[in-house]
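User: If only I could read backbone structure tokens as easily as an amino acid sequence. Underneath my words sits a plain record pairing an amino acid chain with its backbone structure tokens. This is the protein in question:
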Amino acid sequence: MSGASPHTPALAAGVAGGPRRSLILAGGGMRVAYQAGVLVALERAGLGFAHADGTSGGTMNLAMLLSGLTPAEMCERWRTLDLHAFASLWPLRVLLRGPPYPALGSSEGIRSRVYPHLGVDAAKIRVADGIAGTFNLCDYQRKLCVAVPHDQIDLDRLVAGVSLPVLSPGVQVDGHTYLDAVWIKDANVEEAVRRGADELWLVWAIGNHGVYRNGAFQQYVHMIEMSANGALFKELAAVSAINETREPPIRLHVIRPRVPLPLDPDFFLGRVDAATLIAMGHRDACEYLAAVTPDGVPLGPDATRMEDPRPGVGFRETLADEAAGPLRVSLSWEIDDLDRFARTGEGTVVGDVSHPSIGDKVLATGGSFVRSRGRWRAELRLPGGKVVLDRDERKWGHADARLIDPSGDEVAAGRLRSTGRPPWTTLHARGVGSMAEGARAVTRFLGLLLWPGAGAPRRFEVG
């Protein structure tokens, strides 16, 4: 599409006054669908950015944004993406040559299926106006992180930005081998400061907690976490040093999960889906924006710190009107701490709601539930109003639902039924480090459901 016309992407500051903001989209594998939900909240809050930077998985969302997609369109592209498109085996002729192979798989799926579905168009990216974009790559020959300006990006460089060693091959461009930059840095704060940022808005998806896991895969993840967080903290320390002689100081805002996001295998295997990750991102962004202060967060290691993961479970479902009515609720039930659930019956919910009075797939700003004596009562808070659900766990297939507007008036009500994939098929462990630990968490949860009165709290409170 070489004849792409100049366009102004969503969230571009253009020539607007006020603080110069940089949007920093860090990596996190396929889980960066989370960031699309964050962008919906930032757009609704009216924030504009003079500069946007992407590293590793974050380059995918930056590419979508600069290709002209709105945050809502980005969410829908992620929801409908076939994750198996990421996996691409080597052709037989390559396999027959014998090892060593360039990587476990090729990048063909990303080139020919993932990026086209996500709406990524390098020609459109190059002519984006009103915002400066930078895509971070590792130049292997020089062992440097290179921030490629958006007007110089092409498909090869976009693919290189998500080519993680071992998993994907390096990409040859102009005699250099380029790779995912995550082992050098996962967020280029230095580039944002160099471009004159007054405010750094970091969207972080990599884990930062204190639980060290056993096993090769878990420790591979820990290596990325150590590298990404360590490089970030070093750059934040440099910003602190700059602030000693700068007035006004550079402020940092961080939107991150409260507990580590599910890892890519959970996403790939369907234990969690893009809609859930998007809803999590929107919830976390809304909670941050609701409490944001002009000073932001301290420039230190606690900036990305999350709660330590504890054994829990999650499952999801879609509820629709039995009479084919217009109310539709897609939600995920989250139990981050089984010990707490056993004591109080409490957990959280995320999701989206569709109804003619509010729109299609309106993301919730937050939500919670409580289980009391065999009944589950949940509330999803919306930008305008809320949805309240009440059901008997012995008749889980149905739920009484009420859509309530900001004034407290009931807009819609009725009995919804669980449609599509049965919720129990999505039941999975959260916050665990092995299959055995996960099996114990799921077994314990099922035991709590079967034990009469298990987890019965003394009150119902939505927070």
Observations:
- The two ends are 49 Å apart (CA to CA).
- Confidence is low (pLDDT under 50) at residues 454-463.
- The first helix runs from residue 33 to 44.
